[in-house]
Amino acid sequence: MKRNYVDVPLLQQREIEIKILGPVIRAFAEEFGKEKTYDLVRKTLQGISRDLGRETSIDGGGLDNLKNKLVSKWNEGGQLEMEIKEDSESVLNFDVTRCEFANLYKDLGYGDIGALISCDRDAAFLDGFDSDLELLRDNTLMAGDKFCDFCYRKKSNS
């Protein structure tokens, strides 16, 4: 981070992003079609997230660092309500039953593209952070499910 910058909480970062990207994405989707626009946005944000994962992992990847550096940052200020299902040497498995990120997108009128802006980045970020880990997730609050089921695990366990 550059000198004199203020550390902005992740939820506030996402609010700034969606207020800029949301109208741009909608305008491009109207002009060029949803599928083409969403594919390009997804690919671009995944690339950015992968690079950010690499930057974040400078001190090392691994499940412990994922939990201590990232999950705690994502939940900064109580943004998530989580239920830990497994926390072991090779697996971090938890459900998110309340997500202020999903609520933010919905409240600002961008619930329909919240997953595109947020959830669709997660696996790419993890790939940059530690390519020996994988994320398994079948459900998301953004998609209307009752919870997000996050399972981070070492790939050797698959």
Give a quick precis of the structure:
The chain is of the alpha+beta class.
Task: Explain how this protein is built.
With 158 residues, this protein is of the alpha+beta class. It has a single domain (10-157), classed as Muramoyl-pentapeptide Carboxypeptidase, domain 2, CATH 3.30.1380. Helices cover 50% and strands 18% of the residues. The protein has helices at residues 10-32, 34-56, 62-74, 100-107, 114-117, 122-129, and strands spanning 80-87, 91-99, 133-136, 148-154. Strand 1 (80-87) and strand 2 form a beta hairpin. Helix 1 packs across helix 4. It starts with 9 loop residues before the first helix and ends with a strand. The model has no long low-confidence stretch (mean pLDDT 92).
Q: How many β-strands, per DSSP? A: 4
How many separate domains make up the residues?
1
Helix content: 40-55%
- Residues in β-strands, percent: 15-25%
The CATH architecture term is 2-Layer Sandwich
Helix count, DSSP H or I runs of 4 or more residues: 6
Relevant terms:
6 helices; 158 residues; alpha+beta; Muramoyl-pentapeptide Carboxypeptidase, domain 2; 4-stranded antiparallel β-sheet
